[in-house]
């Protein structure tokens, strides 16, 4: 398969904002963002962006030995008016939200056969979510999907990942001026799956983007949400819920690049861990550029350690290049299951197992409500219950 060029043909004008937006944060990377896998050295694990990731468990996604040949079943359920179009790399929408920032994402860009563009027309207000179900059926798979949301449209999008695969994929969200997009990405893979994905959002003028990432399954899951603004007045909310079990590695690396004035962002991720060698990683980067006056941003990460043997790495970063902002802050905390809460509930006649469930559900309740899709919320709560039931048993 032919290698991709350093920038997709036709993307120079439409993608200029996003590509320029990522260049200033390249100092944290081993190489600048690029569409060409050859521009990234094979990681060895000492790089800043790879130091927490178990490279030996990526099954070749990082060094080029993962050969595509697997199967993933994709089903799209969309209301009338939404179009689904297969396109090549030369489509001007492909890559517009941002270039790959590591070798795995660049490998995905170089390896997919056809990208999929899912478009919502301007001013459309969808009463039902757009649902994209991806079910792995073994082997190595690569993908690239672009969601194009027209100006002043209102959309809820659900991405549902199940089954078994070794997968690297790039997902782009082009949010038009004044549009409102909510994305719920559920990673409920089988225990043997490996999933690395870069989510890049370009938020238009006065537009609203909300991302909810829910991660349960998989052997290794590494999700990289990134947000940049195409004009002033944009809002981004990034929420995450993860439950890391015995032997799992779940990594969420976020970047919000405030490159336009009077924009807002709010980040809140919460995770629970249990079992030997459960490992969760959360990296939260927020950059406020000199031109991004009037920015208001905050990021939060909370982790609840339920058993011995679990490990959390939580690293918030805030880089401010202008003093003319409305506000900026971050917080991170990791704690063990509090016996006082358990005792309080048990003293009121609630059995220990039920009290434990209530504490964990209360910990996640605020973020679960952000999903806004009842069947997904119910599924998440049921999954939490199942995980807790397994630990008690």
Task: Walk me through the structure.
This protein is an alpha/beta fold. It has two domains: 16-336, no CATH class; 337-393, no CATH class. 16% of the residues lie in helices and 42% in strands. It has a 16-stranded mixed sheet that branches. Helix 3 (339-346) packs across helix 4 (352-368) and helix 4 packs antiparallel against helix 5. The radius of gyration is 20 Å and the shape is globular. Residues 1-27 have low confidence and may be disordered.
Structural key phrases:
393 residues, alpha/beta, 2 domains, 5 helices, 42% strand, SUF_FeS_clus_asmbl_SufBD_sf, Fe-S cluster assembly protein SufD, SUF_FeS_clus_asmbl_SufD, Fe-S_cluster_assembly_SufBD
Question: Secondary structure elements and their pairing?
Answer:
Elements (H helix, E strand, L loop, with lengths): L15 H8 L48 E6 L5 E5 L15 H9 L3 E6 L9 E20 L4 E22 L4 E8 L6 E10 L4 E8 L4 E10 L5 E10 L4 E10 L5 E10 L5 E10 L7 E10 L5 E10 L6 E10 L2 H8 L5 H17 L5 H19 L1
Parallel strand pairs: 3-4, 4-5, 5-6, 5-7, 6-8, 7-9, 8-10, 9-11, 10-12, 11-13, 12-14, 13-15, 14-16
Antiparallel strand pairs: 1-4, 2-3
Helix pairs in contact: 3-4, 4-5
Protein name: Fe-S cluster assembly protein SufD
Family: Belongs to the iron-sulfur cluster assembly SufBD family.
Organism: Streptomyces hainanensis
């Amino acid at each position: 398969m032919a290698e991709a060029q350093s920038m997709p043909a036709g993307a120079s004008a439409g993608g200029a904002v996003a590509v320029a937006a990522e260049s200033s944060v390249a100092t944290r990377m081993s190489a600048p963002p690029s569409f060409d896998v050859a521009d990234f050295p094979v990681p060895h694990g000492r790089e800043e962006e790879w130091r927490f990731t178990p490279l030996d468990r990526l099954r070749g996604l990082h060094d080029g030995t993962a050969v595509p040949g697997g199967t993933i079943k994709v089903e799209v359920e969309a209301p009338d008016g939404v179009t689904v179009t297969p396109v090549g790399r030369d489509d001007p929408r492909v890559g517009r939200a941002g270039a790959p920032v590591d070798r795995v994402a660049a490998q995905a860009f170089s390896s997919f056969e056809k990208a999929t563009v899912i478009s919502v027309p301007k001013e459309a207000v969808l009463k039902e979510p757009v649902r994209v179900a991806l079910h792995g059926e073994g082997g190595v798979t690569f993908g690239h999907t672009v969601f194009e949301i027209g100006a002043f449209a209102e959309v809820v999008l659900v991405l549902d990942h199940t089954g078994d695969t070794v997968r690297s994929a790039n997902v782009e969200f082009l949010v038009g001026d004044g549009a409102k997009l909510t994305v719920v990405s559920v990673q409920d893979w089988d225990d043997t799956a490996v999933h690395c994905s870069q989510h890049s959002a370009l938020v238009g003028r006065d537009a609203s983007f909300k991302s909810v990432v829910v991660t349960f399954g998989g052997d290794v899951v590494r999700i990289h949400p990134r947000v940049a603004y195409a004009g002033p007045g944009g809002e981004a909310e990034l929420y995450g819920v993860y439950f890391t079990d015995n032997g799992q590695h779940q990594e969420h690396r976020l970047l919000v690049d405030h490159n336009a004035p009077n924009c807002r962002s709010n980040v809140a991720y919460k995770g629970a861990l249990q079992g030997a060698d459960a490992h969760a990683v959360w990296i939260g980067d927020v950059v406020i550029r000199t031109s991004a006056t009037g920015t208001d941003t905050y990021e939060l990460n909370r982790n609840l350690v339920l058993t011995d043997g679990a490990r959390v790495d939580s690293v918030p970063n805030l880089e401010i290049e202008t003093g003319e902002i409305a506000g900026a802050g971050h917080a991170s905390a990791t704690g063990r299951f509090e016996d006082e809460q358990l005792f309080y509930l048990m003293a009121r006649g609630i059995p220990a197992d039920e009290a434990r469930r209530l504490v964990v559900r209360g910990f996640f309740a605020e973020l679960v409500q952000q999903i806004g899709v009842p069947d997904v919320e119910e599924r998440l709560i049921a999954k939490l219950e199942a995980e807790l039931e397994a630990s008690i048993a």
